[in-house]
Amino acid sequence: xxxxxxxxxxxxxxxxxxxxxxxxxxxxxxxxxxxxxxxxxxxxxxxxxxxxxxxxxxxxxxxxxxxxxxxxxxxxxxxxxxxxxxxxxxxxxxxxxxxxxxxxxxxxxxxxxxxxxxxxxxxxxxxxxxxxxxxxxxxxxxxxxxxxxxxxxxxxxxxxxxxxxxxxxxxxxxxxxxxxxxxxxxxxxxxxxxxxxxxxxxxxxxxxxxxxxxxx
Length: 216
Fold this sequence. Notes:
Shape: rod-shaped
Number of strands: 0
Order of helices and strands: HHHHH
């Protein structure tokens, strides 16, 4: 099973202690990040085992190659004096060469496994940093919205993966942000001119009315 599929399955189990509080997005997000971090730790342990396996295979391959070379040398040395023994040496050499082929295939497969695990670890590390950054951003935005007096009462359904948790949380915070009253800039200097211009406009209108009254 792929690493990230394991994350989603395990995440559903790990969220059981907090899922009753649907509005506790921060706790759900923390559980999601913790689960991914656990997967990362397990993957690093697996990576170390795989690397040890690679070293072990490389040693065995080198030993078998030296053994095949010795059997080859023995066969050549005995060919003129003891043909039967020389042929047995060749037989042993071929058996060792087959072992080498099997070990080399295992070596290539293990190297491929190491690359896959390393790639998974890189993606996990990137995902963890992205989720932590997003969590801190949402906490900041949520605190600002709540400081403005908006407390929201919606109760979304719990999700089964980290992405859904953050999407619901962000939607909630965006809704809170729309409730924050936005005050215009307090510019006393500009306000003074606006008041003067308004008063001048009133005076002009009054003068116009007076002028029309006199003409009538």
